[in-house]
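As described in the Methods, two query proteins were run sequentially through the folding procedure within a single session, without resetting any intermediate state between them. The first query and its resulting structure tokens are shown here.
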Amino acid sequence: MSKNGKMTVSELTELIRRSLEGGFPSVTVEGELSNYRPSSTGHLYFTLKDADASINAIMFRNRIHSLAFEPKDGMLLRVRGSLSVYAQRGTYSIVCEEIERAGEGDILAMLEERKRKLSAEGLFDEERKKAIPSFPEIVAVVSSPTGAALKDIINILSRRAPGVKIRVLPTPVQGAEAAAIIARRIEQANRWELADVLIVGRGGGSLEDLLPFSEEVLVRAVAASDIPVISAVGHEIDWALSDFAADLRAPTPSAAAELVSEDWEDTLEGIRLTENELYSNIINRIEKIKLMAKPFSTEDLEYRFRSILQPRLLRFDDAKDVLMANMKDKAGELRKRLDLAARGLEAASPLSILEKGFSLVMPVKNGKILPPLRRAEDIKPGTKLIIRPLEGKITAIAEEIEAVYPESNI
């Protein structure tokens, strides 16, 4: 400052800079985004405004990595940073360290209300959740076909479970239409039985970016799916209502792929361990046998085998002799019984009776030969008779009938 109290522009601007930058080292401001213009150098320039005022803002390139969404004019933002004075233009602005969407509290309140509603309907009940199949043959991924999440899932499944088929059901994962399209893909997968398990999700993003996965139409589609669903939305700290309706929640898409292939990996590892253990046991047994067999010569082994085999051969011969003797005794007994039966049958034969001089007397009535007579009174005089001795046939006529009883003389 000069002696007469006058200041140059630079002096005044420097005073203002010190006052602003020193007095406002950190501020948090909410306002509507306008005049958004990324520069070719990577910095972001924009204006924050409300109904009565506006302020310039800038976010330098080295801080953009913390930005979780794509700014657009008209968004309500909350920025944290410090005031900075640009002396050449005589302007001041906010140098932003962090930028986030304002109004997330309203979104969270809306999601909590929706969560209570759907939970009351039973969509989040543990009883209705299905088990994830241990060895799925086909895994369908409902996600963006160009997203990093899909690439991670494919890479992990290809490495951990190479036998699994992967079907991609492409869909947008953010925007107003995303929820309805994702729900339609889930319904199509069930209608056409496209998979054994569904992975539904996307990579990380802002709360607004993940909103489609909390829409009612998508949550109801997940709950109604007959195919088990794994919800894999965002990063581990992110959440969506689809997580509660799904049969299993994975913290990331990559974790979903690991969960699906977990049994494959464990089984393959178990097979490898069993293979190594079996191989080691076989080698150990072979070595043990070699050590046991080493002291024995060929002649000694032959003697040992004979000493083991000969007693058994003798027992076999003795058993054979006993068996043959028993069979002969049994056959002789059966032969005697057969002879007795033949004699009895022969004695009961009508032919043997006829050989003793007896004959059969059979009456004839109306030209028909009747059974042999047992009593004389069974016929009348004049009856035609057929008499059959052992050989030949005699035809006679009964002239006189006389009853003769067994105790009387013939």
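Immediately afterward, the second query was submitted; its sequence and tokens are:
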Amino acid sequence: MPTPTQKNVGKLIQSLSVLIVEDGVYMRKVIRNLLTTLGIKRVTEAADGLQGLDAIRETQPDVVLLDWEMPLLNGAELVRIVRSPGVFPTPDLPIIVVSAHGERWRVVEAMRLGVNDYLVKPVSAQSLQARLGSIVTHPRRIVQLDGYYGPEPRRVLSAAIDRPTEPPAA
């Protein structure tokens, strides 16, 4: 199978519908501008996790860019709800966390919950393009393994997903 050219990948990315779930008005604007720079025209925004769930149901985006720390319903809780086959209508929806928190335990926890990828703020157009490109050109199949539902774990993270993580003691 031929590999997609950069031009084809760019067109695929531009055709995406993206939902930004972020409580910070300024950060939503920054992410929207990055997506616009990449040529993405269909962008929806939600200010918290509850609005995010409603927006997923209403707009059926191709990808969700999700903040981890939000009021009402945080990123982890939103992922748990979305990754509930039989309960939520689109459990296979690609989710990329975009967070100011880059601690290893948070990244591992997000992956253990079933996110597709994790970016640490500030995020660049290049890193966002790379993650979106990966999702459209090399989608990981969705698997269900002993309580896990989400994209097939990458080999590097497979062992970490099997072991529960805890935040460091204060």
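Residues 36 and 144 are 34 Å apart (CA to CA). We note this only descriptively and draw no conclusion about the first query from it.
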